[in-house]
Design goal:
about 250 residues; alpha+beta; Murine Class I Major Histocompatibility Complex, H2-DB, Chain A, domain 1; 6 helices; 6 strands; elongated
């Protein structure tokens, strides 16, 4: 079991929000969130998530902040959903602060294969951290999204190389991982992707349309031929009638 009942209720809310915010069918979801506290400063943090679209071919992960542009969703309204999701993360942090001696600095949530997994990480993310916010983002993507290094920029490859060298000299950061089944069935989402055509469905419909078009074409040609036949018969009949008329005269 993951956490207390209060924490589990928040996990359910997080999952519900994620399912709602993704506007197409997906294979897996990967979320990162951090809350950083330093003496005499207001706490701050960051959050982002990626998902892998479902499909025949392997697709690149989609960043949450790309969704409004990709799917023509109002960006301001979507940012409200992001803020609400981050508020759930802050609630988790508050529960940890009240009930646990060790306070996590960041979490990674993964939803895949009907499993909900959460990893609490205790790495120091203050100004004393070995890596900047941007570098941590690159490293997290490398660790969680199976990024192809050959397709990364020279700068990002250098960051990952730096991280790998760093980990050879340092002890692995402390983390705690919990995993169990998803909390609920998928809910309605911001775009009803059940009405969105998949590649397979689109190909099937195209084939069906082509078949219908071919049948229509055959039917049309058949009607033209029948019409020509009828007209030829009418011309023949008229010729006979006219011929008979001439004979009578």
């Amino acid at each position: 079991m993951i956490g207390s009942l209060e924490e589990r209720n928040i996990f359910e809310e997080i999952q519900k929000k994620l399912f709602y915010m993704i506007p197409e069918k997906w294979e897996s979801i990967h979320l990162y969130a951090a809350i950083i506290e330093e003496p005499f400063k207001k706490s701050f943090g960051e959050m982002y998530f990626y998902y892998f679209p479902k499909g025949i071919l392997k697709k690149d992960p989609v960043n949450v902040y790309e969704i409004p542009t990709l799917f023509n969703i109002d960006e301001q309204s979507y940012n409200v959903l992001i803020d609400r999701l981050y508020n759930d993360i802050k609630k988790l942090r508050k529960i940890a602060e009240d009930n646990h001696p060790n306070l996590w600095s960041n979490i990674t949530i993964t939803i895949a294969n009907c499993k909900f997994k959460i990893e609490y990480d205790y790495t120091d993310l203050s100004d004393n951290s070995e890596f900047t916010d941007y570098e941590r983002h690159v490293i997290w993507r490398y660790k969680n999204l199976n990024i192809n290094l050959d397709l990364e920029t020279k700068q990002d490859r250098f960051i990952i190389s730096k991280y790998i060298d760093y980990m050879k000299l340092k002890e692995a950061p402390k983390s705690v991982v919990f995993e169990e089944g998803v909390y609920l069935n998928p809910v309605n989402n911001i775009i009803d992707y059940e009405k969105t055509m998949t590649i397979e469905a689109a190909l099937a419909m195209k084939k069906q349309d082509e078949s219908k078009a071919l049948q229509t074409k055959k039917s049309f040609i058949s009607k033209i031929k029948n019409k020509d036949k009828i007209e030829q018969e009418e011309i023949g009949n008229n010729q006979i009638l006219f011929g008979n008329k001439n004979k009578k005269e």
